[in-house]
UniProtKB/TrEMBL annotation:
InterPro entries recorded: 4-hydroxybenzoyl-CoA_TE, HB-CoA_thioesterase_AS, HotDog_dom_sf, YbgC/YbaW
PROSITE patterns per record: 4HBCOA_THIOESTERASE
Keywords recorded for this protein, A-Z: Hydrolase
Protein name: Acyl-CoA thioester hydrolase
Superkingdom of origin organism: Bacteria
Length: 132
């Protein structure tokens, strides 16, 4: 299964004066989803970087449906879109505790050699762990 979800509460610092989550924070929520998706397969982003592979975001798209509010328990569902090659693509859905869809999103990240800053193919150890 190439799907994972995490839940957490919206913190006060993530909101504006109306108690609504600032739109820029959603990128961090998506990152949390990705990191936990990788961890579910036994892949540590930290160890990937230590081995010389970086994963910068090259595309980010968010379609907002409804506002997340202070103290909401939100759930980020993260799904791998397809088997990665030089890029890895994720789709996301973010829900509140009432199961109302707050946002749908998509990110594309590129595998880069840390030293040369050049694209590289997805490492075999990642492909082996995430077989779709």
């Amino acid at each position: 299964m190439n799907f994972n979800k995490i839940s957490f509460r919206v913190r006060y610092a993530e909101t504006d004066q109306m108690g609504v989550v600032y739109h820029g924070n959603y990128a961090q929520y998506l990152e949390m989803g990705r990191i936990e998706w990788l961890r579910r397969f036994g892949i540590s982003y930290k160890s990937m970087e230590e081995s010389g592979i970086m994963l910068p975001v090259v595309s980010l798209h968010i379609n907002f449906k409804k506002s997340a509010l202070y103290d909401d328990l939100i759930t980020v569902e993260t799904q791998l879109k397809r088997t990665p090659l030089v890029k890895i693509e994720f789709n996301y859905k973010i829900y509140n505790e009432k199961q109302e869809l707050l946002a749908e999103a998509n990110t594309v990240l590129a595998f880069l050699d840390k030293h040369t800053k050049r694209p590289v193919k997805c490492p075999d150890y990642v492909l082996d762990k995430i077989k779709m």
